């Protein structure tokens, strides 16, 4: 139903790691693109038991197929890090190609897994973007989030409840090296209140009853397990004093809705504006990754409260996301100030405006037109 943009077109004969948070659709995509490949699903108990006890069985299986032309898919590779030694040997000595799929590179690093000495490429599957969805519905996306099952569901609440309860609060909390799961649950909600905001570790620590270093560790766990990302401050050669702390975004806005108990999000409300900004960030990040451009994304905020939501590349694009249907002068102050300090290629406000227009040298684009230009490579 969804035409995913991640196609492995640059893979060639190289092996790769294929990461992505739970339920982004990694296994579905791999089975679609590599339907004839040998497939080892480590979530299957019999496969897991066999290879965890005797990792060399992978080598023995594949040496019977010396002329194999397709990649070998290992799904949930983080469950058996020892397999990576066998994969490394098969790659170097027999030229086998592997796609190693998983939800947490942190687990491999923590267990000192063999990361193939830099020989493997890295891909990541993200939540859905508008380009992948027929008849895309913005309001549905802002309410349900963009994990495939959640977006399609008539009622996404039970799915989000299970996702947060069984995955985030248990599996991800297990990465906190024995720290309190209830405290981690409190942190998840506090991080949701900080979603899209400048992170204040001390305030969150007080709310959760833990130390600031513990809060920093919790945030790093979310980043390492692909559940969230920092957006750093843009502060290269500043003329104005700027804030240095990063912003933080969960990887999917549906989680934020659930953790904050937002209820139904409707146009015109504060929740809609915050969700809209988060959604535009997800689209920008996905384009940066899927296009292979991998340009950095920053925010800009001065101590005098001038702000730009997103700076793309090395100040090539300055962009504000506003859920207004009629962007006015009051929305343009941050972009004007930034363009006085840095030379930009595009200054853009993405909005709900019905038609594109130009105001004070700033392009005001309906969100649909912005996305068309973004994915056509006309923004950056």
UniProtKB/TrEMBL annotation:
Domain AAA: residue ranges: 18-133
DUF4143 domain mapped to chain residues: 170-324
Pfam family, one: AAA_14
InterPro entries registered for this protein in UniProt: AAA_14 (IPR041682), DUF4143 (IPR025420), P-loop_NTPase (IPR027417)
Protein name: AAA family ATPase
Organism: candidate division WOR-1 bacterium RIFCSPLOWO2_02_FULL_46_20
């Amino acid at each position: 139903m969804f035409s995913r943009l991640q196609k492995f077109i640059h893979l060639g004969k190289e092996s790769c790691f294929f990461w992505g948070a739970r339920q982004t659709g990694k296994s579905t995509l791999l089975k679609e693109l590599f339907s004839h490949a040998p497939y080892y699903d480590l979530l299957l108990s019999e496969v897991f038991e066999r290879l965890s006890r005797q990792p060399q069985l992978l080598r023995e299986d594949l040496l019977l197929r010396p002329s194999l032309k397709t990649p070998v898919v290992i799904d949930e590779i983080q469950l058996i890090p020892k397999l990576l030694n066998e994969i490394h040997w098969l790659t170097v000595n027999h030229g086998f190609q592997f796609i190693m799929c998983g939800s947490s590179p942190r687990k491999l690093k923590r267990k000192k897994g063999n990361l193939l000495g830099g020989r493997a490429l890295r891909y990541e599957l993200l939540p859905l973007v508008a380009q992948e969805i027929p008849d895309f519905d913005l309001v549905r996306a802002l309410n349900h989030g963009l994990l495939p099952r959640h977006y399609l569901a008539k009622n996404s609440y039970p799915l989000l409840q299970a996702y947060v309860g069984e995955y985030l609060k248990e599996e991800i909390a297990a990465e906190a090296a024995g720290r309190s799961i209830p405290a981690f649950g409190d942190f998840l909600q506090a991080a949701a209140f900080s979603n899209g905001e400048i992170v204040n570790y001390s305030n969150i620590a007080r709310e959760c009853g833990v130390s600031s270093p513990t809060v920093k560790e919790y945030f790093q766990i979310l980043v390492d397990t692909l559940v969230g990302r920092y957006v750093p401050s843009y502060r290269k050669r500043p003329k104005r004093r700027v804030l240095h702390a990063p912003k933080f975004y969960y990887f999917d806005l549906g989680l934020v809705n659930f953790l904050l108990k937002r209820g139904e999000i409707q146009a015109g409300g504060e929740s809609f504006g915050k969700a809209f900004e988060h959604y535009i960030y997800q689209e920008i990040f996905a384009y940066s990754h899927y296009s292979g451009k991998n340009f950095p994304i920053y925010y800009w905020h001065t101590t005098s409260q001038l702000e730009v939501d997103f700076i793309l590349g090395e100040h090539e694009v300055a962009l504000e996301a506003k859920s207004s249907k009629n962007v006015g002068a009051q929305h343009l102050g941050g972009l004007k100030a930034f363009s006085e300090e840095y030379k930009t290629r595009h200054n853009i406000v993405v909005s709900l405006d019905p038609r594109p227009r130009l105001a004070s040298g700033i392009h005001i684009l309906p969100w649909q037109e912005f996305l068309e230009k973004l994915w056509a490579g006309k923004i950056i």
